Amino acid sequence: MPSDVARLSVSAATHKGYARSGNEDSFLVDHHIGGGDLDQLTVELIVASNAVVLAIADGLGGHKAGEVASRYAVERISAMREEVDFGDDTSVSELLDSIGRGLHLKMLETPALLGMGTTIVLAIVTAQSLTFINVGDSRGYVIDENGLRQATHDDVPLSSSVAPRRKGAITQALGGLPPRMKVIPHIHRSSLPAGDWSVILCSDGVTDFLSSHEIAAIGRSGTADAMTLVDSALRAGGEDNISAIVARYS
Description:
Layout: E1 6-15, E2 25-29, E3 32-35, E4 38-47, E5 52-58, H1 66-80, H2 89-109, E6 117-118, E7 120-125, E8 129-135, E9 139-144, E10 147-150, E11 174-175, E12 186-191, E13 197-202, H3 204-207, H4 212-220, H5 226-235, E14 242-249
Antiparallel strand pairs: 1-4, 1-14, 2-3, 2-5, 5-7, 6-11, 7-8, 8-12, 9-10, 9-13, 13-14
C-alpha cells in the first residue's frame, strides 16, 4: 500500500438499548448517517487527498428531542466537511459553534424542542494524521502496539469522572440550555500510529457499562466490530442508548 494512502475498514452500529423508548444517538461515517432503534454499517474507505470523517452524537438524555439534535449535528458535519479545515482549531470551533447556533434557532422556531442538545465526538483520518475532537462525554480511543488509550476529554463534573456508573451529567454540549454561543472543543492531533491500529468512537452507553479492559479486548480482536461493542453493552444491561464506530487500519 502506498505510504500516502490509508485504508480503513469501518463498522458502525447503534441500538436504543433496553431501557429507553427511543434512540437519541446518531453516527456519521464519511457521508453515511445512521440512527434509529437499530442501525448498522460496514464499509471500507481509502484516505487519499480527502479526510475520512467519523462521528457519534449522543442527544442529551432527559431533554426534549435529543434525537433531533444529534441528527442535526451529524448532518451539518457531513454537509460542511469539505469547507472545514480540521487541522485548524478556529475552523473546528466555528463549525461546532454554528451547529450550536443552529440548534438554538430550531428551539426558537419550535418551542417543543426547547432544551435539546447533543454531545459530539469526531475522528478525522488523513493520509498523515489522526485528529480527535469532542464536546461532552462521548469518547474516542486509539488501540495500537502500545495498547488502548483515550484520546478525548470527558466534559463531566469532577465528582462523576471516577464513578463506574455516572448519572449522565455533562458540563458542555452543543445546544441545550442555557444558550451557549461558544463551546470549547477538546482537540487532539497526532501522526498516524505505527503498524496496525484501530480507532473506537462510542457514546456513554458503552463506556458507562464496559470497562477500559473490556473495550480494549474487543478492539484488539481482529473479528470484532462495532456491533460487538454494542452487543457487549446490551449484555451489561443495555440501560442507555448505545453507539460505536470501529475503524481498523492495516
